[in-house]
Amino acid sequence: MKTTPGARMSPREWARFLLRVFLPFAMGYFLSYLFRSINALIAPDLTREMGLRAADLGLLTAAYFLSFSAFQLPLGVLLDRFGPRRVQGLLLLAASAGSVVFATGHDLMSLALGRALIGVGVSGGLMASFTAITLWVPAPRWPLVNGCFMTMGGLGALSATAPAEALLHVTDWRGLFFGLMAASATASAMILLVTPERHSGVPHVSFRASVAGLKRIFLDGLFWRLAPLAITGFGTGMSIQGLWAGPWLRDVAGFGRAEVASGLMTIAGAMTVGFVATGLSADLLSRVRVKPMVVMAAGTLIFIFAQLLMVLRVAPGAWWSLALFGLFSNFHALCYPILSDHFPRGYAGRANTGLNLLVFLGAFSCQYAMGGALDIWPGNDPGTYAPQGYQAAFGGGLALQIAAWIWFVWPRRGATGAVRQDVRRG
Length: 426
What we know:
Elements: H1 11-37, H2 39-50, H3 54-70, H4 72-82, H5 84-103, H6 108-121, H7 127-136, H8 142-159, H9 162-167, H10 173-194, H11 207-218, H12 221-251, H13 257-286, H14 292-311, H15 319-327, H16 335-342, H17 348-376, H18 387-409, H19 418-425
Helix pairs in contact: 1-7, 1-8, 1-10, 2-12, 3-6, 3-17, 4-5, 4-11, 4-17, 5-6, 5-7, 5-10, 7-8, 7-17, 8-13, 12-13, 12-17, 12-18, 13-14, 13-15, 14-15, 14-18, 16-17, 17-18
């Protein structure tokens, strides 16, 4: 493939990109979302077997987010310096090792260590893939291809619902994680053996210069216009979809285990469709000069409304309310192509991972805080929680999102672009 991101791609080049780049990286991202979401399904097993409180379960699940976020800045430097193929291929081996540690764990600390290793191992699932897309795909198609790619994450979340529940009738949660170990190793081999090496064409700089570039990114005005909305939206959405939606369906909607799996599947299925809808809507509307930032503002407002229905307990568990939540839960993802287009190409990995660092720190804090809030309102049965606890937990995240949305849409004369200005002066 000789295509550069500024050129058009022929059907043959698209086919090669799909088979040799898109699908190998997509398998890694599929696993990333499966790992992220699976605790919502196995939470009752972990609570029963380990005697965990809500805060313990929140901390255990959030260990993924903490290690994931801690590796984002090094990840950005590595991606810009060594490229997505080598970085993502090697990281998935850490996810494989973490699966073994989790599957063999017998206390909270060993499970948290396994979960943390998994977080590091899949920390490049999205960012390495976005970087690969910027290397292989023309810039005008980034939002659409990103959205199609993120559909694979939705399929991963979908697999963590009813399909995983079916597997739990054949094996237990430990056997499930041994299977994920093998899948992670396979994804690593696919990327390293199938995907060609490709570089951005930007000359390599020293690690010191790469780290210095992070400072310029974190001084950029557009970055800080986008960041609060991404942090609060993704943080709350991932915390609910990845863990607390299952207990909420049980304690508020009154669902049994099979119904909980079906409800989670509705959310994940709608989220999968939403990934494509996000990218497709941004792509189509850009042709009539509607900017991605406008599309994101509208989509995130609908997501806020969907959460309001949950907080107010309007039709809890109704398929349409769950679908509305899932469908609009990832319009925040438009932040990434917006940043990729805003910054010079040599900064793309660091810009996106810089935002991702904040997003996953927010997800860690949100998930742990929700668990703490739920412990204040225990339910009548052990391991259950009162509806008031969910209102407090989900309502707190909703309030932060509303404030971030107002900050995002608030009129401003212009935002400084520190990196752009620095490049022009050079």
